[in-house]
Amino acid sequence: MQPDDLAGYMEAVSECKKTGKFSCEFRVVKSNGGHRYLSGRGHTVNDHQGALTIRGVFIDVTTTKELESNLVATKSRMQQLVDGIPGLFSYIDRDYTVMFMSAEYRGIFDRTNEELIGIHIGELLGEEMFNERKPRYDEALAGGVVQSESSRSMPDGSTVHLAVMHKPHYVNGEVEGVITLGIDITERRRIEENLEAKSEELVRSNKDLEQFAYVASHDLKAPLRAVEVIIEWLHDDLEDYEEGDVKENLILLSQRTGRLARLLDDLLAYSRAGRKVGDVKHIHLDEFVRDIGVLIGPPEGMQIVTSEGWPCLTTHHVALETVLRNLISNAIKHHPNPTNGCITVSCDDQDEKVTISVADDGTGIPVYLE
User: Fold this and answer.
1) Does some domain include residue 101?
2) Running DSSP on this structure, what letter comes out for residue 182?
3) Least enclosed by CB within 10 Å: which of 70, 105, 163, 271?
């Protein structure tokens, strides 16, 4: 007998004397130094001389012990493998008994692995949560794959959001349990909530912009109309005045105020650009660009050059005007010599599309910034 097992064997004998039943497992040493496992079962009897003896059988259980040892090692390796999965992994049988759980669950339920295995899943979840999840378990036990999202409060007070999948586990064609995989989507949920908040903020900003554009358009029209009336009066009063460029300047001023009035009308439409680009209008492109140049009013000496014979377009004129006005204004603003420069606006009509280019004779953008 293996010396380490002798004490256990003698204890089993002493117990048998008290109870009349013998039960013990021990190892015997082979001649080559190896050992085998024996399992003994027996009972006490009195022989013909009245002496107490133990009668029973011993069975070689070495193969069973080796299988048990291999099974424990396999389960240990599997546990280590699953514990490395970034998420939750569990398995319950048809009776909702927990057969396997990954390390993440130990933190959630604040229990050791031994305390998690072999208990009803409802004991861990609580009655309310189990009743809420039971239909999903039942659907998986019936052969379906169930996907859902859930949230759980952690021991530290934080809330974790999970994407959960319940999948049936088949043995010989029959569903024997449910594999559950949960992936932490807390960060994704946080990003979604932030995007939703930003979207709501953008909607509010658009409404504020629309209100501002309406008020500005409305409030500026009155003084602008007064200017237009004054120009008409001056034009009438100076109808017979022929000296200098007074009449030409009045005509130019009238054109610019008319253009500004139309710009105010378009201001509200443009403020809705995120939802509505604006009305579609038929325009003569060359005249359209020249009017933008007049409205901008470049410094004396700065030329805005266009060509003749541009096509007519049916387009969202407010958006197009805004883009061209910004491009030309920026070219003037950043020109190194705005009193002696040239901005060229060109058009390339390609039938299916029209390309409009704005170029200037300034220093351009440094290569390292392109």
Assistant:
1) yes
2) E
3) 70
